[in-house]
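Case study B.
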Amino acid sequence: MLGEGIIKGLLETARNFVGSYVSKERLTTVQYPEERWEAPEASRTFPFLVYDGDEWLAGLRCTSCQICEKECPPKCIYIEKSADKKPDAVGKMQFYPTRFDIDISVCMSCQICVEVCPFDSIKMDRIFELSTDDRFEGLILDRQKLAKSNSYYHQIHPTEAAEVDAALASERAAAAAKAKAAAEAVAAKAAAAKAAAENAAPAGGGA
Amino acid sequence: MAQNLDQIFVLLTGWMVSYLPEWLRPYGVAVLGVVGVLAVYVTLFALTTWFERKGLGRMQNRYGPNRCGPFGLFQPVADGIKALTKEDLVPRSADQVVHFLAPLVLLIVICMGLAILPVGRNMVLVDMDAGLLFFFALGASTELSVFMAGWSSRNKFSLLGAMRAIAQMISYEVPLLLSAISAVMIAGTLSLPKIVEAQAGFSGILPHWYVFTPWGFAGAVIFGIAAKAETNRCPFDLPEGESELVAGYFTEYSGFKFAIFFIAEYLGMFSISSVSVTLFFGGWGAPLSFLTFIPSWIWFFAKVLTIIFVFIWVRATLPRLRQDQLMNFAWKFLLPLSLINLGVTALWRFMGDGWQRWIVCAAIVIVSYIVLGLWGMRRQHVAPRKYSYAD
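Model:
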């Protein structure tokens, strides 16, 4: 009959109206500044730079290879390479950025910089309360603002950070083994050379 | 005491006017009455915007506004300040004069409609013999200002909205008037205070409201549906249709002119709810005989707010109609039903007091409702359209 559906609908909204006063579960709104919702692990906003240890500049993983700068679709990254070198996360001597700016008014949070980084240096952050009264300078993050510790990275993306740490540890072990092998080879070579020299000297003397 | 409380505003006006010289007194009464009615209705408007947003929120399992003041009660104040401080833009190609006049004409006409409402015992600004006629005449002229707004904006959305508004308002004015006429037929007068008096009195504890008769119930429902269409409220908000027409006929209005349209829409809703309370729900009369000690004006506004709540409830429930559904519903269902209802009212009038008329009238109303619902609102199977050139 005509109007049955309307009655049914009216009853449904009446149930909602009364129910929202009776049961709190119906109101799913998170009242933001007072209440906060734990963001899912995979959520992302803008990139940041990871550093190891306590010194942010010394521990910066970035080697200023500038791949992210070239790959960034909206071109929001600006990097200046250093003249000198410092040891990177694996212990190898590398350049480091003297300037690393990300304009977050341009960044589109695509995560391509993270995908292309060969040093696991740039990762996606989860901060979102970035409003500022200076829309030009206030939205450009320099390297100090971007640098965040590895423990912070563990805090926001635990699974991913553990994988990165494992990969870095194995790289470090490989580098250490290689260095050891190289040192041994050098030592062996030196020993061989020494032995050869020792062998040659008496022979020469004997001749 | 209860008598004094019931007449408190009448006595207050008399006391204030008594300080004026003799020849000024009628003007004093008029000014005080106008100021009082406008103040009450505008306050109700502010409260209703809050009430509506809260109610809609709760019906959709949300909180609604709760930031401005306790329970968000100051939200209307914030909205008002916002509307006043916004830039008032007028399109360069608009018809400046008509564009400026349209909201004013609408507001003036709607405010004039408030004058004839009996908001309590002995509380009516103008007791006209043809009050209802005056109200409907004013209601019809709101269409003019809607069309002025739509036409003068020189915007296709505005014009489409205005066209829809005219089509809708004219279509729904017919059942609105026809359903109101049934109450006039029984009361025998067009004066609203007299219609309220005709519904006074109780059988046992139950009141003699027209809504408790078969023709009155049908009339109240038809009147309510047509009133929603007249005030462009959801599900009949096609003239605004923000998902289709931006804002319909007031697309090109901003700042306080927009706020005036908003106020006029709500005041129109109040005045038409007040008229439906007067016609079918006993006006300022108490709903049960032992509740007559509560002042009449409290009953009146309680009833009006209840009807407003039903408006909000329906808005939260139903989606917007399509234009053809709107027209089908008006001409194939509401119009025949209200005509039949007129006949039923006449039958009720001439069958005299007795239980037979209850059965006969109820049966006619129910049968015609079912038959019209099946026939008038049947789904029509139309063959898929053939395109001779596009294929």
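The two ends of chain B are 81 Å apart (CA to CA). The remaining cases will be described in the next quarterly update.
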